[in-house]
Each structure stands twice: as structure tokens, then as C-alpha cells.
């Protein structure tokens, strides 16, 4: 395997981006090889599908400060409300 395509939702149009440098993600999630990285993604995707099918979906971005800053779905996921009280203080 030479690369992986993933969905990028940072822009207003949905597009697939090619990622062929595992070291970029391995620093974030601690998976040093393609095989480990693909296994990690397979497990995470399976976990996400199982949560969805069971009616439960927890929102846990790996790099929340960066991910949430670039996301246009704040009103959908409501992660801000989950982490702040009614006065806006972090819980």
C-alpha cells in the first residue's frame, strides 16, 4: 500500500485527500507503520459503526482544538455544550 484516501470536511465541498506520509499521523496516534496505522483506522471505523448502529455516538476528536476550530458541524455535534456550563465555563 502506498497511500490512503480520507474524507476532508474542512472545506465547503467534500473531497478526498491522498495521504502517503504515515509519520504525519503516527505522531498523533502513536502508530509507527502503515500496517499499524491501517489497523488503527480499521478498529476506529468499526467502533464508530458499532456505536452508530447501537444508537450511541460519542464525540472524541483526537486533536479537539484543531479539529473543532475547522469544523462547520458545531451545532450538530454540540461538543461545546458538553464541555461548558451555562455560563460558558469549561467543565
Task: Describe the structure in your own words.
This protein is mainly alpha-helical. It folds into two domains: 1-58, no CATH class; 61-91, no CATH class. The protein has helices spanning 22-29, 34-53, 64-69, 74-77, 79-83; strands spanning 4-8, 15-19. The protein has a two-stranded antiparallel ribbon. The longest helix has 20 residues, at 34-53. The chain is extended, with a radius of gyration of 15 Å. The chain starts with a strand and ends in an 8-residue tail after the last helix. The mean pLDDT is 68.
Give the CA-CA distance, first to last residue: 43 Å
What is the share of helical residues?
40-55%
Low-confidence stretches: none
Structural class: mainly alpha
Integer tally of domains = 2
Helix count equals 5
**Within the largest sheet, what's the order of strands?**
1-2
Largest sheet properties: 2 strands, antiparallel
What percentage of amino acids are in beta strands?
5-15%
User: Average pLDDT, to the nearest integer?
Assistant: 68
Tell me, what's the shape? extended
Number of strands: 2
Helix and strand succession?
A: EEHHHHH
Radius of gyration: 15 Å
Amino acid at each position: 500500500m502506498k497511500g490512503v484516501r480520507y474524507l476532508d470536511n474542512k472545506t465547503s465541498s467534500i473531497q478526498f485527500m491522498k495521504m502517503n506520509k504515515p509519520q504525519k499521523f503516527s505522531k498523533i496516534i502513536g502508530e509507527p507503520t502503515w500496517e499499524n496505522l491501517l489497523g488503527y483506522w480499521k478498529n476506529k471505523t468499526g467502533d464508530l459503526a458499532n456505536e452508530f448502529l447501537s444508537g450511541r455516538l460519542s464525540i472524541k476528536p483526537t486533536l479537539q482544538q484543531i479539529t473543532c476550530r475547522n469544523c462547520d458541524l458545531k451545532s450538530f455535534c454540540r461538543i461545546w455544550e458538553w464541555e461548558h456550563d451555562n455560563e460558558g465555563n469549561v467543565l
